[in-house]
Specification:
Length: 85
């Protein structure tokens, strides 16, 4: 699958079914021309998103081995769920 098709897809955590965020970038292995990791912009609530206008965005780097399944609209990944504080 082309990297351009993966871009902007939602990443769903298999542990609790919540949306982790959207894929915004990739890390490539230059020698093998394969994707090593994906960069995910974390999903935030509406109010946190407004506050983030003045803060740096949070990006999660996920190894491609964590991808369980790629669907038409979403990517299912084996990511841990964290309690939000």
């Amino acid at each position: 699958m082309k990297a351009s098709l993966l871009r902007k897809k939602d990443v769903v955590k298999m542990s609790d079914g919540s949306i982790a965020g959207k894929i915004i970038d990739f890390e490539f292995n230059i020698s093998s021309y394969e994707i090593q990791a994906v960069c995910i912009k974390e999903k935030q609530s509406f109010f946190k998103e407004l506050l983030s206008l003045f803060q740096k965005e949070r990006v999660l780097v996920m190894d491609v081995s964590k991808i369980v399944q790629i669907g038409k609209d979403v990517i299912f990944a084996d990511l841990p769920s964290y309690e939000k504080k």
